[in-house]
Amino acid sequence: MRDLQHVILVPGFFGFSELGDLPYFAHVAEVLTDNFTQRGWEVIVTKSSTSPTASIAQRAARLREVVVDVAHEGTIHLVGHSSGGLDAWWLAHEDRMEPWTRRLASVCGISVPHGGTPLASLFTGVQGHRVLQLLSLATVYILRFGRLPLGLAAKLVGVFARVDDVLRLNRTIADQLYQQLLSDLSRERTEQLSAFFSDVRQDQDLVAELRPEATEVRAIPDNPAVRYGCVVTQAARPGPRTAWRAGLDPYGQMTHGIYATLHTLTGRRPSGVVPPVYRDALFRAFARLPDGRSSDGVVPTLAQLRGTFVHGAGGDHLDVIGHFDDPEHEPPHFDWLASGTGFRRRDFERLWGRVTDFLLDEPLS
Q: Would the pTM of this model clear 0.85, i.e. be above it?
């Protein structure tokens, strides 16, 4: 067995790593541990806690506490999903003179909004907070029970059926849905969520920092002593084909409607061109070059490019951290949004195999 490796998993926007047994990274730690062990490395995979919507600087400060607490020796790797990748980038630069950073070997971002995301504007203000609460509570419910009751799912889809409906979310409807979702959860879980949403109400600086026009935070310089990589995601554009792939199950069709709305909102402000350095890798990954409207349903694909191109995944924003449909796997994978992209367990294992290659500085297979 070779030197000890520490992999710190950093959750993204609205990360709920502290909500008891609910997994933000589903099956990721297990796959990474197997990958490292099979290659003869001793590894400890830690899931970092975070402040749900606090500024990147504050989230990075929390990440620093986790790293210092768990990684007393050995090599350190930071793997951040979504805005968690920005936290890791910030920390790698901000703390580069501290002793532990001499053991920081790599930072790998998964679906990171380096160029921001138009979807962030949806969550601003009181109205945006209601939308955020509904989506997050529905996510927690699905992680707890596998899926929403059809009646509740139908009501939620009714809200997200059209872009304009989301932007004018009725307060009464939102409150009713929220209470119905909450009523099936245990008292302990309800108390956890209440504390969680209280944190969100008090600090939503992250929302503003994720807008495409907010460039200050994302202009964080790289640390020359650290290797940086990106996993880039692109989901299928919603249409008849993706609706078919989402399955004939009414539930799958309903959640596909939510995905379609989020994808539309994400592509409302096309931006970016393919940097020449990434052209070949993107074409190999997706068989065509992404354009300004390509996204994983949450983050524009071209906004995710920074550092070494590690992998291009044909999946949505949550597929890549284990939230896709595979109820037969033990333990099962549960899908939150049926994007119809067709991401499966083999794709999940390949992605995290490539991440392992990058972290260990091995040739990308």
A: yes
